[in-house]
Write a structure and sequence with these properties.
The complex is a heterotetramer, with 2 copies of chain A and 2 copies of chain B.
Chain A (H helix, E strand, L loop, with lengths): L3 E5 L1 E9 L4 H14 L3 E7 L14 E9 L10 E6 L2 H7 L3 E10 L5 H6 L18 E5 L1 H8 L7 H6 L1 H12 L5 H10 L4 H20 L5 E5 L7 E7 H16 L3 E5 L6 H8 L7 E4 L3 H13 L3 E6 L1 H17 L3 E7 L16 H6 L9 E3 L5 H16 L2 E7 H5 L1 E4 L48 E2 L15 H17 L9 E3 L4 E8 L3 H13 L5 E5 L1 E3 L5 H6 L1 E8 L4 H10 L4 E4 L8 H12 L1
Parallel strand pairs in A: 1-8, 2-5, 5-6, 6-7, 10-11, 10-12, 12-13, 13-15, 14-15, 19-20, 19-22, 22-23
Antiparallel strand pairs in A: 2-4, 3-4, 9-16, 14-21, 18-20
Chain B lengths: L2 H7 L23 H15 L6 E5 L14 E4 L5 H11 L4 E7 H7 L1 H10 L3 E7 L34 H7 L4 E6 L3 H13 L4 E6 L11 H4 L1 H7 E3 L7 E2 L5 E6 L2 E6 L18 H8 L13 E8 L5 H16 L4 H6 L3 E4 L1
Parallel strand pairs in B: 1-2, 1-3, 3-4, 4-6, 5-6, 7-11
Antiparallel strand pairs in B: 5-11, 8-9, 9-10
The chains are: A alpha/beta, B alpha/beta.
Bound molecules: thiamine diphosphate (TPP) (2 copies), iron/sulfur cluster (2 copies) and magnesium ion (2 copies).
One magnesium ion binds next to helix 4 of chain B.
């Protein structure tokens, strides 16, 4: 029987199952294949908070959302078109995210009495039978049974056999979306190069899934999603934490400095440490410290020693670093502090995303201790943002905050990666000799108000630095009142002066004056961008500007803001950028705040745009 | 470049004077810190380290002002974190000679954790702990080394904290060089400073230091002529434990129990005494527990010298070995390759 | 010879000498006597940063400023009328603070060759001879010589003799200001009750100083400063840190709770610990922890156990407490966190004052972690502010920040202390039984949105609290997105809702609408109040409002602000309250910022008032 | 009210079931934490402490989820600080029975300082350290107890940190009760839990715990039947150190050097063996250093049981004594007097 083929512009698939069902791998494989076919895409995994929550329970559901298309994609998307549910719990947790009329692919074995009970569903309310899914298209496949049948006699144990059932689903989806199997087969071959029997089983099941689609009548439709009109070039897929790690290495290479990374594990920042630890051949010194205070302290020591030094953590760990950040402000040494934000306060929602540490970055220290703040917009953008944070730290001899979040850290997207040669140069020169007519003034400043970097080992530049207020230029201890005010203002001017050396703020889209500007920062980028496109298509032409620099603001930001009747600031917090903007520019900007541990959907922002513009 | 090759690069000999900065020394007149500063400035030139390769790192406290007075590189940092800062510096720049100056509060109260972690990691850093059994800079609260019952501003009825025994703590944290000296014995102190430098690994030197303003005379019994010989036990490797005004007393071991014997009594012989062995962890442990209150009857003398030494790899060496081994096996990382990652695709 | 007696309204004396010269004691004695005579007054000591900087040096100068009068006094005052200088360094450091034409009393022996050298004064520039003091009245006394002469044959050593020379100065000033000696004699009798020879020597010298004024012609004038028109009642003198300590004890007594105080020494907060440690007979458990994190953590433990728990520190230590404060926010347990602010950032100027930790208090934590912030205005006011912070903490089950600063902590003023019975009641009731129909809901809320306090030992109320997001009412762990947003908003509403239970903002002085409002917080109170009085007398009638509550702001604050054309916010920082006010009320308030480690002078503020009003 | 009188107030006997909460236990299937939870729930009722007087305090980590599963009072706190929180709670409420659950990272990495300070202060708290030699909750980085060379996510080339020996560290910090047990030996574990409770002062119990997801089998050699008897040494006070499949091996002391002897060889006798004495600090120190890598030849068996016990005053008792002594000498403070201070004056 011939099946109908439809062309789609974009698809959002949510792969959901128990933590042990391999949904992260399935999603990643589908993603990589989509990327190789030239789709634009964006993904976001959704882990359970527990390491391994009890199998089959609601807490144990692991999900992976993929948004791919023949158009440009800026976020993992809002409601899904397709939901793969390997068990009852996965269906229950994710159903509300599925579009009405959307497609559900279920593994029927995951809806047996035991699984229903674990998902807290009364047995007589089995969603597969009780009509509650009538508004959706449901494809029921007994994946477990089919997998076992296919591998009978393979010599593998039942546990190993069952573990390959995710390949059946992958194969089936490859069939449905007209995708080749080669890429995944290659992947399996690498992964199981030493376990021939398991490799064979996986490939067999992958093909079985494909064949099942081809031969059965479970679905009468197949879909084609054409390549997206992406700028020509070579692409790779990248996750945010990985991008940050690579950004650090790139900045070290380009500045000619060794990289020191002092860190203490914490979700969702740990992967930066893991990634860096793998690159010792770049001379990376990654140091797992005893706590966050030691982590930043070691980085401070390494920075004094002439390394590009960085540390990363998430909210609670950043809180612990406050005192040492103040020290780095006084020292005026380069240091990059990455905060991969998660849901707060306190331990909060450690595996969820949030943007509620902005004011902590700006104000979370004693005294007037200004630190520039740079924000990453998306997984791939984390590379550039990190690189830029390093550049500022080195050129201005200052600690710099880089804000990322759980959504950026674990999300992935295609990245038209640069060539090493294309990266902005970072010029670092250690001072080699006395800088003031036979005298050495460690706090003498250049036109950027930046001081020289004189590292141990340099003859004649022996000097002492400390956290007590320093005399201008000499850096000696000074309790002199006038000097203190002078230095506080000087450190402030230095940071504010960075505005003279960063690009002016640009609009991301929309008219350059008018009714509404959406001002964003960080990971809301994709949702805002998509929302603007959708609103525009409905006749509401809002402008969008997205901040890379949250402190100092770009010089022309005020001008831009004053060009609009209204300014909307969507944030995953209670209005933190909002507060900074209102107090600085005296405009009654409006906040759109979501504090659910989840990113905005484009729809939420679009609705607000329309509400404000109509 | 290792510390040793750095040594040879030294061009002309330093003198103590070369290590004096233009900053006025601001400890209270009579403070024990002066003497320690002087001995350090005297010993350093002997060691042949070029001045530019020396870094003094400190936390906060009276003692932590030290780096300002040393014409070397220096970091006066924040309370308790000097150990962590020095760890990072040493990991980054193993060829530097890093000296850490800290107080009993700085190292053992707020900084206790970094302290024990530095000891176990065995960074090749010299820790000089100026123990005055008090918080000097904050004007006289008790510290984790103050004796039980200590009356201070924060304990007007006497402290109810059982104090740390710093030697025992360092042993428990697997320190590889553990020693004690005092501000008032320049010769011994200089000797210990040299030993610290010689040891590869974290050298922990506790220095009894008199705070004549807030805890005057805390160590008088050990430092003053009248009582010093009776109350102290200067240990040397391979030598029997002898003390007393005329070396008339000794310590021997009765099983695991140390016993003070009278050498003037002919039934006792120097040959039966406990012979100090720096590399014997168990005995060093017993020696470290000679920690009684000197007011108690039958108390043991307080030992000074090197309690324990052990050879163990240093963190920074192992780290650099890893880096070198990947470099030699994989070659220097190629940034373009890293940027490119494992899997790419082309859009034409 | 009869001497002229003049009546003065107010006098500012600065006692200055080497750290070893006993100027703090001299100042305190003069102060106490002034208080007993009914003068209003205010004092501020000015310690050197070093414990004992080398004798005779500029760094070693210790000062004590006293402002007393027959009118109301609100601050230690600006420029001095009288400068006592025990040595050359003391003169050099303090001369710029003396009014032109003011009186200088010097100990000539402090201007010998050695002292000049230590003060970095070339020998030929001895200010006593070179005419540089021509614009002042100078009284030169060889105090040392006179003291030694008077005590010849006393049997005391020269060191002990010299140590009593400050009594000579005190006696001389008592003569000059017509004050009785009795009070100081009583003090000496107590202090030296066990050292008869020293007691006698001190009294002898005190009287010798008085007699010296009476008989010699060093001064032809004496002064009378009459009692001030203070509200009738009984007064005592009090320092800010002492007031805070007593405030904690009073709140504990009135609420019927034991007091637990966990702290780690740090300048200028340590004296609170010292004071509390002395009051074990109030059942105070003061605990010197191993660091600031342990200090607040022990307080959190004690609070869970049902104690009124508090911790205090200064900037760097407060930075370390950020993570634990977030935990207390999540726990919703009562806790008072006192920050005695000092000059920052980092170690900064530890012995100097500043107000630059306000935004740290408001924002210095990860996530949305709202904490009410209460500020003390003056040394005596620290009692009431502390008491109020305790009340809010207990009634709203929340951590509360109390902001003080070095100026308040070490300053002193007369205090019309309350009777225990007059203190506002603080009602605390531990929950005794289940609160929800046979169930216990630890996070069920009352009308204040406050939750019950159920302490260990209470049968049937066993429950667990933690830092992970909690389910509404049950307090169980919840990762549910809607619940998270609900709880974040609820915690915010609870803190903002405190505005309904605190007094409305009142004006301190001035017209209730008009041209200019000065809005202050914290220790700028006295300077602003005095500045307003002076400006008013010059025809510039500015209004003054002073915030006790910085978070939440009083409900009517906006109304008040909108009643003025301009709002001026003087702060010892770069504009922190300014930022909060601008962003919340959208008014272009103006900052007056001083970051010198020193309090504002009334003159500085008055000048600004006039500049803005004319 | 002291802990003991609290005991007597208990009305009806608890059962293990009474200690189960309504929260789903969320450790990975197979995790060693389950067994420990079970033994704690079994032992507690025996101790006769009223449920409302029990408080479980924890930091952050898999292990630190423990309080949620105990139907008592409980605090799940922040990483590393449970010791400090428990100190405050115990200082405030000495009559409560406070149990602390922590992990190797929680107690010895970020929490190392509060840990050693609690030990020296000797608060009467029971510390259960679930040592799985890994960071479980953050998904598999090495911890301060991971062995040298450990390959983990953060050390792909192997860790270069020399690990702590928790027993030695606790000895160095003047702990007064130091013991070790394991998740897989319920009888021994229960026994140790009882001993913890009985000891007045800080009881430190290290529990080897299998993290079957990130460090599976770390202690297999000690816990699994096949090797357990050969590789472990269960020590009991007053009993000789004997081990082996058929108790055929023993440990004797040759001077300070422990030696393994073969008891089947007639030249060796049980009577010559080292007899365990919990109160002997030196011997406990030697025993604590039985810490070799079991892969090394001639290694010593790993000891389990109580290494060391000492009686020393508890911080909270001394604190309360001070309070009571002032109360009885000065009487209860009078707030009006305090407000009034020493010196006042009247304005009419
Ligand atoms: C975070 C922080 N907490 C507290 C302080 C205050 N402080 C400075 S030094 C010190 C202790 C000093 O004692 P010690 O380390 O023994 O040094 P000493 O002054 O006796 O040489 C304290 C508590 C600080 N500067 N920073
Ligand atoms: C301040 C802070 N830093 C880091 C973390 C992340 N974190 C949580 S638990 C943990 C370590 C867990 O290891 P362990 O204490 O051994 O407990 P386990 O999970 O193995 O039982 C870390 C690093 C955190 N929650 N808070
Ligand atoms: S206070 Fe004590 S330790 Fe500090 S400088 Fe003075 S004498 Fe030395
Ligand atoms: S990760 Fe390890 S320690 Fe944590 S629950 Fe799972 S098995 Fe247990
Ligand atoms: Mg000290
Ligand atoms: Mg662990």
């Amino acid at each position: 029987m011939s099946k109908q083929t439809e062309i789609l512009e974009r698809v959002i698939i949510k792969f959901a199952g128990d933590s042990g069902d391999g949904m992260q791998l399935t999603g990643t494989q589908f993603t990589n294949t989509a990327a190789l076919l030239g789709n634009d895409l964006s993904t976001f995994p959704d882990f359970p908070a527990e390491i391994r929550a009890p199998q089959g329970t609601l807490a144990g559901v692991s999900g992976f959302q993929l948004h791919f298309g023949s158009v440009n994609i800026y976020s993992p998307g809002d409601a899904c078109d397709v939901l793969v549910a390997m068990n009852a719990a996965a269906l229950k947790v994710n159903l509300s995210q599925l579009k009405k009329g959307g497609l559900i692919i279920v593994n029927t074995e995951g809806f047996d009495a035991k699984n229903l009970r674990l998902a807290n569903i009364p047995e007589d309310k089995n969603p597969l039978n009780d009509g509650s899914l009538d508004n959706y298209q449901v494809i029921k496949i007994d994946v477990t049974k089919l997998t076992r049948a296919a591998l009978e006699g393979s010599g593998l144990g039942i546990k190993e056999i069952d573990r390959s059932k995710n390949m059946f689903v992958l194969g089936y989806l490859y069939w449905m979306y007209n995708r080749p199997l080669e890429n995944s087969i290659k992947f399996l071959e690498e992964k199981f190069s030493k376990k021939k029997d398991i490799l064979d089983a996986n490939i067999k099941i992958l093909k079985a899934g494909y064949a099942y689609g081809d031969t059965t009548e479970t679905s009468l439709r197949r879909y084609i999603v054409n390549p997206a009109p992406m700028p020509p070039g070579t692409y790779r897929n990248i996750m945010g934490n990985q991008a940050a790690a690579i950004g650090l290495i790139a900045a070290a290479e380009k500045s000619g400095l060794p990289l020191f990374y002092g860190s203490y594990p914490i979700t969702p920042a740990s992967d930066i440490l893991h990634e860096l630890a793998r690159h010792k051949n770049f001379g990376v010194r990654s140091f797992q410290a005893e706590d966050e205070i030691a982590a930043i302290s070691t980085a401070i020591g390494a920075s004094f020693g002439g390394h590009l030094a960085a540390t990363a953590s998430s909210g609670p760990g950043i809180a612990l670093k406050g005192e040492a950040i103040g020290l780095a402000v006084m020292y005026e040494i380069p240091l990059v502090i990455i905060n991969v934000q998660r849901g707060g306060p306190s331990t909060g929602l450690p595996t969820k995303t949030e943007q509620a540490d902005l004011l902590q970055a700006v104000n979370g220290r004693n005294g007037e201790a200004p630190v520039p703040v740079v924000a990453a917009n998306s997984p791939a953008d984390a590379f550039e943002a990190t690189y830029e944070a390093c550049r500022l730290a080195l050129e201005f001899m200052t600690p710099v905050f880089l804000l990322s979040d759980g959504y950026i850290a674990n999300g992935a997207e295609p990245w038209k990666f640069p060539q090493a040669d294309d990266l902005k140069a970072i010029k670092v020169e250690f001072l080699k000799e006395k800088n003031a007519g036979g005298k050495f003034l460690p706090y003498k400043r250049n036109e950027k108000l930046s001081r020289p970097w004189a590292i141990p080992g340099t003859k004649g530049l022996e000097h002492r630095i400390g956290g007590i207020e320093k005399q201008h230029e000499t850096g000696n201890i000074s309790y002199e009142p006038e000097n203190h005010e002078f230095m506080v203002r000087l450190r402030n001017d230095k940071v504010e002066g960075i505005a003279n050396y960063i690009p002016e703020q640009k609009l991301d889209s929309g008219p350059d004056k008018g009714k509404l500007l959406i001002l964003g920062w960080g990971s809301t980028y994709g949702a805002i961008k998509t929302a603007c496109i959708h609103a525009r298509s409905e006749g509401f032409d809002a402008a969008h500007a997205h901040l890379r620099y949250v402190k100092p603001f770009p010089k022309n930001l005020g001008e831009i803001l004053y060009n609009y009747e209204k300014v909307l600031i969507p944030e995953m917090n209670m209005g933190q950028l909002l507060m900074l903007i209102r107090s600085k520019y005296m405009i009654p900007a409006i906040g759109l705040n979501k504090i659910k541990g989840l990113p905005f959907t484009a729809g939420e922002i679009k609705d607000k745009i329309i509400e404000l513009m109509k | 470049m290792t510390e040793n090759t750095a040594l040879q690069n030294s061009e002309q000999k330093l003198t103590a004077k070369d290590l004096v900065t233009d900053q006025e020394v601001r400890w209270c007149p009579g403070c024990g810190d002066y003497s320690i500063l002087k001995q350090v400035q005297t010993v350093i030139p002997e060691l042949g380290i070029p001045r530019e390769n020396l870094v003094f790192v400190s936390g906060i406290g009276c003692s932590s002002r030290f780096p300002y007075y040393m014409e070397t590189y220096g970091m006066h940092s924040i309370h308790g974190r000097a150990t962590a800062i020095a760890s990072g510096l040493k990991a980054a720049r193993p060829e530097l000679s890093v000296w850490l100056v800290t107080g009993d509060g700085d190292a053992l109260s707020i900084g206790g954790n970094h302290f024990i972690h530095m000891l176990r990691r065995n960074f090749n850093v010299n820790i000089l702990l100026f123990n005055n059994q008090i918080y000097g800079l904050t004007k006289g609260q008790y510290s984790p080394t103050s004796e039980e019952g200590k009356i201070t501003k924060s304990t007007p009825m006497g402290s109810v904290d059982h104090p740390f025994n710093p030697i025992a703590l360092a042993m428990g944290a697997d320190g590889t060089f553990i020693a004690r000296s005092m501000d008032r014995d320049p010769v011994h102190l200089k000797d210990m400073l040299r030993r610290c430098h010689q040891h590869k690994g974290t050298s922990f030197l506790e220095i009894y230091q008199n705070c004549n303003v807030f805890n005057d005379g805390a160590f008088e019994i050990f430092t003053e002529k009248k009582t010093k010989k009776q109350e102290t036990l200067f240990v040397e490797n391979g030598k029997p434990l002898v003390f007393g005004a005329n070396n008339e007393k000794g310590v021997k071991l009765d099983g695991f129990t140390p016993v003070i014997v009278d050498l003037t009594d002919s039934s006792n012989s120097v040959n039966d005494l406990w012979v100090h062995d720096e590399r014997d962890r168990v005995k060093a442990g017993i020696l470290g527990r000679f920690f009684d209150n000197p007011a108690h009857e039958n108390h043991f003398p307080r030992p000074f010298g090197v309690f324990y030494v052990e050879d163990r790899f240093c963190y920074e060496d192992a780290l650099n070995e890893q880096i070198n081994s990947v470099l030699s096996s994989k070659g220097k990382g190629d940034l373009n390759k890293l940027l490119r990652g494992r899997e790419v695709w082309e859009i034409a």
